[in-house]
Design goal:
- The chain is α+β, with helices and mostly antiparallel strands.
- It folds into 2 domains: about 40 residues, 2-Layer Sandwich (Alpha-Beta Plaits); about 160 residues, 3-Layer(aba) Sandwich (Aminopeptidase), CATH 3.40.630.70.
- The protein is built from 8 helices and 10 strands.
- It has a 7-stranded mixed sheet with strand order 5-6-7-8-9-4-10, with helices on both faces. A 3-stranded antiparallel sheet has the order 1-3-2, with helices on one face.
- Strand 8, helix 5 and strand 9 form a beta-alpha-beta unit.
- Helix 3 packs antiparallel against helix 4.
- The longest helix has 15 residues.
- The termini are far apart.
- About 35% of the residues are buried.
Amino acid sequence: MVFPHPLCANSDGILAAGGELSPERLELAYSFGIFPWYSEGDPLLWWFPNPRMVLFPKQIVVSKSMRPYFNQKKYICTFDLEFGRVIRQCSEVPRAGQYGTWITDDMIEAYCELYHRGLAHSVEVWQEGELVGGLYGVAIGKIFFGESMFSLQPNSSKFALITLARVLLERGFVLIDCQQETPHMARMGARPMAAEKFYQYIRKNLFFTDINRVLWKDIK
């Protein structure tokens, strides 16, 4: 269960192919900033993109249009309450410009197991008792590796990300990994970072991997 050095990824960001989505392999991969991404029927691919899109929690952008959602408490956020529902919604809710989903049944099963082991986490956004948005990802040490978001009501996924960033900042997290560069994440405050610099953060983060479950267990 060994990966090539993350900085050996090719120009597209592909580091390796094959293997399985076992919880042990996923934990090892994320510990070194590597993540799986592939389509149904394709080989399992492991990625370490260059550049890497990252968000420092203190740099999250709360636009003027988003402030009423917090001031008027239009939504309510919870953590790790409905992980299974969140990841399934992320796989099913259509996104503009995308066809189908990369969140396969095998990935859902694997990340649900990571959730039960205390490594994968979800943020749920509620409106009048209905789940209307959310996100999920993997927390290793002081880095949160974001995977996917969904929205059923305006700005609900933004609400989830802003709330997450604030909680992570309070708990001393260093980075939110956004993986690929997108205009949406750029508007939220994320910026591209050279793979070499990102790997420096990964190396430092290896010293904090044992504190992950302690940081998350009391979030309400």
